[in-house]
Amino acid sequence: MELLPRSPAEFGSASYWDRFFRQRGQPFEWYGAFPDLCPFLHKYVRPRDKVLVVGCGNSELSEQMYDTGLCEDIINIDISNAVIRQMRERSAGTRPRMSYLLMDMLHMDFPDGHFQVVLDKGTLDALLTNEERATLAKVEQMFAEISRVLQVGGRYLCVSLAQAHVLRKAVEYFSQEGWVVRVHQVVSSGDKQQFVLPVFVYVMTKFRKIPGSAAQILEICSEEQDKPVRVESTERLVAAVKDRQHYALLCSQISKTPCREEVSLDLCDKESGKPRYTLHVVDSPSVKPSRDNHFAIFIIPQGRETEWLFGTEEGRRQLAASAGFGRLVTVALHREQCYEGMAGIQAELSGKVMELAPPGLPAQQQVPFLSAGGDIGVRAVRHCDSSPLSGEFVVEDVKGDGICYFRRLIFLQNRNVVQSEARLLAPTPLPGQKKRRKDKKKSSPTAEPPGAIDKSYLCCEHHKAMVAGLCLLGGPNTLPGELAVLVVGLGGGSLPLFVHDYFSLARVAVVELDPSMLEVATRWFGFSQGDRMQVHVCDGLDYVAKLAAEAPAQYDAIMFDVDSKDLTVGMSCPPPAFVEKPFLQKVKTILKPEGVFMLNLVCRDTQLKESVLATLRDVFPLLYVRHIQGEVNEILFCQAGTAGRRSPAELGARAQALEGALRQPGQAWDSSYVLADMLQAVHIL
Questions:
Q1: CATH of the domain at 557
Q2: What GO biological process, any one, is recorded here (predicted)?
Q3: What is the pLDDT of residues 205-223, one digit of tens each?
């Protein structure tokens, strides 16, 4: 402990360093072992260069550079007389072209432009221990002296732990002088690093400053690549380095102890900087470790990352436990990226995921890559666009669990939520057309999926529940006949289409705020208007308010399935204005006395949800709720009178009867859709 300074200021004191090196004696490497630094030294130091090492200490770096023939014309300086004597004795008679001088780097005696390379290993970090005025003045004097003794085209190589204030100061100073600044991350070749934080090398190349030019060239190289990536500002460069430091801390932490909570991180594309993989690290304490079940990687097939099993923390924990591995890393693939099959992903990730290995993983252990169905799935982006109201969105076709394909609408501001979904019909061969024989030698995971929409299939469970809720209409022994239905929120149009097609006497009005959604529904989801289907492009709040004033009591059923764009509120469906009491009273006004109002409620804020339910109970005396299993969604069935109160058994019987009436001869019906099942878990609030 006596080797540590009493205060950070002592790092700049010659007497402290004299005492340190007399007591230490043996060579001391703060960080950055020679084998780890070799790739950068070979890249930026030429054998004939004149090299200056500032703050050399008793590091073996200069000696190793000399002895390996990397460079011999090396001058080392330090403010500690004790260490300069030690180093001269170590190299006496064996390294004639290398010298050690007692000199302060803030006041150097060398002529201008004397060196091609200035090398600094930890000296800037030791000097810039705080951001006090006196410290910053010393640092600027150091930079000015380095700049003076370097030739134009020369390189200042600084080995550093890249604390934010240190990196920012160096980058700002030299970039403003017109220098090119490049930052490399050093990969440790040893099994154990002395420091948890990674080591970086700043490479500042001197150029003549062009008067009036504010252009900056700032670059960063990741540990896996040589090709630099340009960044536009000092803050972005500092942020990129900080991301790498956080990742190193994370890897260090989870390599020593199991994860109590799920850990998630993004791995970004080298070229674009956009996320390429999203990883979740899940530990299963219940799994008893053996040699073969410590660790596995699970590749989520494209398009299935929104499913409960893969898209929620609870689902991923269940997946990890059922897979039988102590630690499972799930990997989600991003729609903006291209992938070369499972083998390509494995080659790309194999080195990186090993940094996330659990404690106790046996040496040379083979880590399996798993997937559902054995491949990476199929995703075909059909349409990309944006609108002022909905932001960026995509329409994509994905392969589900099995042979079915689905078309989805995704709003990219909430990319893990499927806004609308429809099943695609398998193509029907023409008469006399033979099925194409599969080529056993070639698989085509990116084969074109079919394009026609299966209008008989409701993908969303909350849509199924809403349709089943129509059995609340009608008398004790009758089912709904002619219906006037209002749907607020179009999306892909699956819900109003189903009501239109299966309730032959229904007249459906749809209100949609965003005209882009009407275009998407029509072009990509088979939606169309007609005598019994009309879309009103306007604000649902205004539409309901106008009807309440002009034409009350005209709808048998009103369905709200409208999302909120405000992600700061703990309720993503509907927007809060749709569940305020004055507006709900207007909804009640346009509903027929025995009608039903259905609301898709998605609320993670418990207190807010209780408030919404209390408001609904104030307006609608009869309130049923149906929770959608595995999702946050709850469907609320609201009625103005209590006379129509029905038990769960009665609801099930009415739903079964309604289904029988809807199953018309010659009309497709999805066999997995049982209306009675949708109402089994309904209860009255």
A1: 3.40.50.150
A2: methylation
A3: 999 887 766 678 999 987 6
Q: Is residue 219, in this structure, part of any structural domain at all?
A: yes
Query: Which of 221, 249, 277 is a domain's end point?
Result: 249
Strands (DSSP E) found in 161-252:
180-186, 199-205, 217-221, 229-231
Which of these three, 370, 398, 425, is where a domain ends?
370
Cβ-defined contacts of 260-264 (< 8 Å, 24+): 262/313, 262/316, 262/317
* Orientation angle between helical segments 581-590 and 540-550, nearest 10 degrees: 50
- Residue 433 belongs to a domain: no
Let me know how many helices (H) and strands (E) the chain has, helices first. 19, 27
Structure-token pair, residue 644: 């129509």
What range does the domain containing 571 cover?
458-664+671-684
Do 279 and 240 share a domain, yes or no?
Answer: no
Closest CA to 382 of 359, 398, 367, 400: 398
Class of residue 598 by CB neighbours under 10 A (exposed 0-12, middle 13-18, buried 19+): buried
C-alpha to C-alpha distance for 429 and 575, rounded to whole angstroms: 46
Any bridge partners for residue 396, and if so which?
381, 408
| Same domain for 601 and 466 | yes
Instruction: Give which of 370, 382, 204 is closest to 282, Cα–Cα.
Output: 370
Please identify every stretch of the chain with a pLDDT value under 50, giving residue numbers as ranges.
1-8, 10-11, 16-17, 21, 430-447
Total tally of structural domains belonging to the chain: 3
- Over the chain, what is the mean pLDDT? 84
Contacts of 133 (CB under 8 A, 6+ apart): none
Q: Is residue 381 part of a domain?
A: no
Task: Decide if 412 is inside a domain.
Answer: no
Rounded CA gap, 445 and 438, in Å?
A: 12
